[in-house]
Each structure stands twice: as C-alpha cells, then as structure tokens.
Amino acid sequence: MVTTPGLFVFLFFVAALLVRKYRPLFLVAALLFYLTSIYYTGNKMVQALEKPYNIPLQEANVDGVVVLGAGYYKGSSNLPLEESSFKRFMYGVMIAKKRDLPVIYAGAFNEREAAQLTAQELNDTLDLNLTTPKDGKLRKQFAIYYTKNSANTQQNAAETYALFHAQGIDHPKIYLVTSASHMHRAKPLFEAYGMKVIPAATDFKTRSDSCYCFYYPTSKGLQLNDIAIHEILGYLRDTLKKLL
Fold it and tell me: N or C: which end of the chain has fewer CB within 10 A?
C-alpha cells in the first residue's frame, strides 16, 4: 500500500543508505516517522486517555449540559461544525432533549455562529425547538445557550460558570460533553470553578479490535498520533501552570 506517510518513511530510509555521514540521523527519522504514522501506536496512546470515560452515562440531577466546541469550517453552507464538534453537539443535544435540560455550547472564536446555524438546521428538519430564550436567562429546561468566544478550555469553563453565576447558581452540577481523549484535561478545569462535573464523553477515536493494516503508515495514523501528542503536551502545560 503506497501512502504519503509511507513514502516519506521510505525516502528517509533510502537517504540513510545513501548518506553515510548522517546515516544514524536518517535512520532515527525513518523510525520516528514510522511509529508516529501508524494506527497502532496512536490507538494505544489515545485508548489510554479514552478508557476511563468509555462507560455508560451516569444518571444524575444536573443543572445543564455543557458542550465544548472543536472548530468549524468557515464558508460551509450547511453543517459547518467540524467532525468532532458536530459529534459533541449532537450528543449534548440528545442528552439534553431526553432529560429536558439546557445546552450550553462553549466554543472558540466564531464557532458560535456555526453552532447557531447547526441548531437552526436541526430545528428546520427535525422540529427540535432548540432555541435560546429571548431574555437569555438560563433555565432548567430544553434550550440552547452560547458562551462568549473563548480561546481555550479554561476560558470555556470561566464563561460557562459566568452563565450559571448570573442566575445565582454558584456550584452547578453539569454533564460535560467533549471528546473522550480531551476529557482528562477538560474536567479539572471546570471543577476548578466549583462545578460538579459528570463526564459525558463522546467522539471516540480508537478501536478495540486488531488488524494488520494498523501497521501501515497512513494519514489516519498520523492524525491519531497527533491527537495523543497534543493531549499529552496539553496535560504537561496545565500541570506546569498549577505548579507555577
């Protein structure tokens, strides 16, 4: 199977054979690129992050469902939320609709508009009545609210808390909806604001089966390894912030 990552692994290996002086460097580069472009290594690392949250949703008396955004496609005429964002959005709406709870969508930059368009499309096609009360006051009933634009998860938590605090709820209990691989970082950030967090993980990226194809260098393997490395570095950054 010829893939772009596989081609680069092959080129690094060929370079190691042709360039004697830098042979060890090219061999190491070939090995590292191979390991970070196969599904097997990414699956193992991300699976470790997802496993604690790959459980049925815990039933509880909560004040709302908080959905964390993960990007959008600017200029898209329909369903503009990126894949992870859309999965989170839909799972959050499913939880809220079933339990008659408010949904709080906490996104970054101009993601609010993308989420609003998605909500409108769901209303038009599925008749969900997923709207925001005109007075903007948070109530314990099925509706959708949006935080101000935030640059990161910590700001998402701050803006979410502000919505609850404005209604006199200083220690809200929430279902937190985000990708399973991101939950280990998101949960403590929301708890730091005094919120009681019940994980509602979704957007699982890993598989429990095995296949020889897991060892082929692929773009999907690169993406999965990138998610793992991103989460690990993010966890280290958050830990350093706490220490400092």
Answer: C
The closest of 244, 241, 206, 228 to 54, measured between CA atoms, is: 206
| Placement of tokens 């399973």 in the chain | 180
**What does pLDDT average to in each consecutive run of 10 residues of the chain (244 residues)?**
73 80 85 90 93 94 94 89 95 96 89 90 90 87 89 90 92 96 94 96 92 87 92 85 78
pLDDT for the residue numbered 212? 84
- In this prediction the pTM is 0.87
SS (H, E, C) 141-199: CCEEEECCCECCHHHHHHHHHHHHHHCCCCCCEEEEEEECCCHHHHHHHHHCCCCEEEE
Q: Which two tokens stand for residue 116?
A: 């609003």
The domains of the chain, with CATH numbers, are 4-50+208-243 (no CATH), 59-202 (3.40.50.620)
Helices 219-243 + 39-50 axis angle, to 10? 40
Which residues pair with residue 241 across a beta bridge? Answer: none
**DSSP type of residue 137:** -
First-to-last alpha carbon distance for the chain, in angstroms, is 48
